[in-house]
Amino acid sequence: MRITQRSMTANSLAGLNSNLAAVAKLQNQLTAGKVISRPSDSPTGTNTSMQTRSALGAVTQQARNISDAQSWLDQTYSTMTNMIDVTQQARDLTIQGLNGGANSVDASAAISKQISALRDSLLGMANATVGGRPIFGGVTAGAAAYDADGMYVGVPAVGDPVPITRRISDAESIRIDVTGPEAFGAPDDVFAVLGRIAAKLDPPGDPAPAVDVDALADDLTALDGALRSMLSGVAGISAKAARVETAASLNQDRSLSLTTRLSSVEDVDLAKTTMELQMQQVTYQAALSVTSQTLQQSLVDFLR
């Protein structure tokens, strides 16, 4: 087989270009810090990278959902526990009012004013918000769950509630809200009961008539029912908060795992790539040297 000078030159240049391309590729990887700059660099790695990035995006969104759920549940829990404390104070005052033999008309009227003030305080707390949304208002677009008269103005006003949910994992969504009727009783909620108690402790008339103890006792029973509803609501919120806390921990672990996986697919191994670049540069320099010695002769050299 005849080997011509032209074929030797072409083969040598092809080998040099291949070595130079390898050097350039390693240099680009070190500069970018990434093994994959384009899909052709590694089709399999690109596919794995895309799948991992998609999963990481879902985990990141779930982390935002978890943070939102925690804020909502924490605010609801804090508000309801404070409201239970205030309602318990109102209950204690109601028991004092039931002791008609020891209380004068003026004392009963004073207790009535205190209970009215506590009711107003409860209404204020019942309109607590997170991100501008009332936490006990359901899916309402309004700014309050209860009006000044203690009437529920959230959505839905009647019927089954429309839950506000957040997806906290691929397989789990959790309801984060509790509506006013669910938390404070319905239709005879804590605000209506306290309003009746205040009215019975300070009945109109001059002179004021005696307190209707039997009717007040019935209202105390109704108030106890509202308290049980509130305590049940707090227990439910606490259980959901625990679930969200567990989801947050699992989300962090999964995020770290996916980030590590993505790094192993995309990121450059600095020490390994640097060594490969040095070896490739030595190979390229050796190829240059050998090629220069092989191709330096021409026809003129043989005619001398």
In short, what is this structure?
The chain has 304 residues and is mainly alpha-helical.
Strand and helix map with partners:
Layout: H1 5-32, H2 43-98, H3 105-126, E1 129-130, E2 133-134, E3 165-167, E4 173-175, H4 180-184, H5 190-201, H6 213-266, H7 270-294, H8 299-303
Antiparallel strand pairs: 1-2, 3-4
Description:
This protein is mainly α and 304 residues long. It has helices spanning 5-32, 43-98, 105-126, 180-184, 190-201, 213-266, 270-294, 299-303; strands at residues 129-130, 133-134, 165-167, 173-175. The strands form two sheets. Strands 1-2 form a two-stranded antiparallel ribbon. Helix 2 (43-98) runs antiparallel to helix 3 and helix 3 (105-126) packs antiparallel against helix 5 (190-201). The model has no long low-confidence stretch (mean pLDDT 85).
Reading the helices and strands in chain order gives HHHEEEEHHHHH
CATH architecture title: Up-down Bundle
Radius of gyration: 39 Å
> According to CATH, what is the topology?
f41 fragment of flagellin, N-terminal domain
Structural features:
4 strands, two-stranded antiparallel ribbon, rod-shaped, single chain, 304 residues, mainly alpha
